[in-house]
Amino acid sequence: MAADGTSSVADPDAVSSAAPVGRAGEVFRAFLVLGCTSFGGPTAHLSYFRESFVARRRWLADETYADLVALAQFLPGPASSQVGMGIGWMRAGWAGLLAAFVGFTLPSALLMAGAALGLTALLGPEATGLLAGLKAAAVAVVAQALAAMASSLASGGRRAAIALVCGALALLVAGPAGQVGAIALGAGLGLLLEPASGALASRDPLPAPRRRTGFALLAVLALVLVLPGPLAALFDWPALDLAGRFARAGALVFGGGHVVLPLLEAETVGRGLVSETGFLAGYGLAQAVPGPLFTFATYLGALAPPGGWGGALLATLAIFLPAGLLIAGALPFWSRLRALPGARRALAGVNAAVVGLLGAAFLDPVLPAGVTSGATALVALLALALLLAGTPAPLVVLGAGALGWLGL
């Protein structure tokens, strides 16, 4: 332990065997509390983490935490979950990384799986109003997220143009190809159009696994993204194919959890595995639970064949696996990545592209599916007004569902 109370790691690959089991338990308990109480999305989660692990427990220094956040934002995947995994790893090695993931994810995953299975039982005429209210709330949530992301990630004419071009590509090219193409186009346009700037600010290297471990983890990630489809076709395992699709969605998300919406919509609704109504109702519910928004995949896994609790578990592990492999695999190379002269420009283009992706998802399917009548339009507008006024999203979603149950 360093003099300032932070964790010091001399030989990080040895941490997993040297750290006491009690440290992993300590990490699990701390993140379980946060998983039960962390409402508000990724930005709020990062604030909770800093308060809990930097200011209060002093597990790591403020500068180390800031660098870990920068790495998570540079990488694709759920930023807050990746930061949590990184904190767990620094505290208790690989067992700590797993403990942080399970503790932070378990509460919302259980809630979303239970909601999906309960929704399946309720999908009768009596649930029509409830679902309409939840879909209207989803319209408001996505609209607010789109406005916030556009103001921070696509401000100015150049970045707004990148967002529009990439959003148009996502609308014109259906499915994952359009999503991946938009992200790649955004990175290329950022390199071409963004003004030259220095590399990301340099700090002391983060505690990290050895480079050979990083290479091995990134190689495993490549296999996770490539092999499930061919293996599923060879052995006729549709569940493995679905897991691969969730893993690819988890590996392609830049710019926050909301951006997973178009990727998962293409892989589930677009393939006829989940109804559009069930999809948007679940997305609305995801705003009402604490923890990572990526547990929306848990809900979809419970609905898509084979479904049930097994499908929920499979989807959860699949969508978060790339996040863990990326954060641990990239740590040894972060100091070099941040020194690349084009890193900041490419990242700016990718961030603008994800605004376009979210805008495309808002236009199709969120808006037409969520606003189907004058009454649902009023609910969506009321929900948006409450969100903009600072009302917590869980209360807005639950209120919209109640309004739908009573009056739609």
Give a verbal description of the structure.
The chain is an all-alpha fold. The protein has two domains: 12-102, no CATH class; 108-407, no CATH class. Helices cover 75% and strands 0% of the residues. It has 19 helices and no strands. It has helices spanning 15-18, 21-37, 42-56, 62-74, 79-122, 128-153, 157-172, 176-193, 211-226, 228-235, 238-251, 260-267, 276-286, 296-303, 308-330, 334-339, 343-370, 374-388, 393-407. Helix 5 (79-122) packs across helix 13, helix 7 (157-172) runs antiparallel to helix 8 and helix 11 runs parallel beside helix 15. The N and C termini lie far apart (59 Å). Residues 1-19 have low confidence and may be disordered. It is found in: Cell membrane. Pfam families: Chromate_transp (PF02417). Keywords: Cell membrane, Membrane, Transmembrane, Transmembrane helix. GO terms for molecular function: chromate transmembrane transporter activity.
How much beta, percentage-wise?
A: under 5%
Whole-number tally of structural domains: 2
Structural class: mainly alpha
Strand tally? 0
Quick take:
By secondary structure, the protein is mostly helical. Helix content is 75%, strand content 0%.
Primary descriptors:
disordered N terminus, 19 helices, 2 domains, globular, mainly alpha, 75% helix, 408 residues
Which helices and strands appear, and what pairs or packs with what?
Elements: H1 15-18, H2 21-37, H3 42-56, H4 62-74, H5 79-122, H6 128-153, H7 157-172, H8 176-193, H9 211-226, H10 228-235, H11 238-251, H12 260-267, H13 276-286, H14 296-303, H15 308-330, H16 334-339, H17 343-370, H18 374-388, H19 393-407
